[in-house]
Amino acid sequence: ATGGQDQMYGHGFATLFLSEAYGMSFYQDREEVLGKKLRAAVNLIVQTQSNTGGWRYQPRKSDADLSITICQIMALRAARDAGIDVPNATRKKCIDYVKKSQNADGGFRYTINGGGSSFPLSAAGVVALNSAGIYDGPAVEKGLKFIMRQLPRRGSSTSGSYYYYGQYYAAQAMWHAGGEFWTKWYTAIRDVLLKSQRTDGSWLDGHVGAEFGTAMACIILQLPKNYIPVFSEG
User: Fold this and answer.
1) Which tens digit of pLDDT belongs to each residue from 118-139?
2) CA distances from 61 to 35, 103, 131, 135 (A)
3) Short-list 210, 177, 213, CA closest to 193
4) Torsion sign, CA atoms 215, 109, 233, 89
5) E strand or H helix that includes residue 130
């Protein structure tokens, strides 16, 4: 996990990676090399869930925000799919937290304490529900409609703050939704990304850098291949 003030970001993504590696590995020492570390990582997430059902920057029970929460529930979903035990109570508390983070306009806010809806967090909110096993119902439907208002436009700028973060989750939300949601969204974001790729093959995220932007763009573009287990329903 990363240091500084954002340890649970790093922990969530690292646990997601370990879960996918564990689930797709079949070598003899899998449990010894990956399993023990993955189970410890999952246990930390379970033990640090806040009383409201979400997670925050540090690995301890405190307050919570949606941006950190999506990282943890997605990691737990991947771990569960790989055969690791994840308490159902943890999942249910997270669902409650995410639903309480939704505004009347269908979008999601940063914390349950209040605030306006944003596109990146709304995409994250829908994927958090998907990761917890919720694929339909009013919360998901209203969230998808809110996200669709931000359909990528050809020639639009990709340099805005959190652009690739938002598109990473939006593409996943539309992938799970399927049908016209997915067809419209993927066609649009694919065209924007192919036009915005730099001559060296990278994509530049103005907030973080080329490494992050390129990783997010590649993950989005490969979604139709269905290579990554956590993006599948189940």
Assistant:
1) 999 999 999 999 999 999 999 9
2) 25, 25, 21, 28
3) 213
4) positive
5) helix 119-131
Q: What is the pLDDT of residue 163?
A: 95
Confidence (pTM): 0.94
Residue 41, CA distances (Å) to 13, 89, 112, 178 in order: 11, 18, 26, 32
Task: Estimate to the nearest angstrom the gap between the alpha carbon of 189 and the chain centroid.
Answer: 17
CA atoms within 13 A on the CB side of 147: 32
Which residue spans within 117-166 are E strands per DSSP? none
Q: Residue 96 has which token pair?
A: 């409650």
Distance CA 39, CA 31 (A): 10
CA distances from 119 to 32, 85, 126 (A): 41, 32, 11
Please give the backbone phi and psi of residue 58, each rounded to the nearest 5 degrees, phi first.
-100, 150
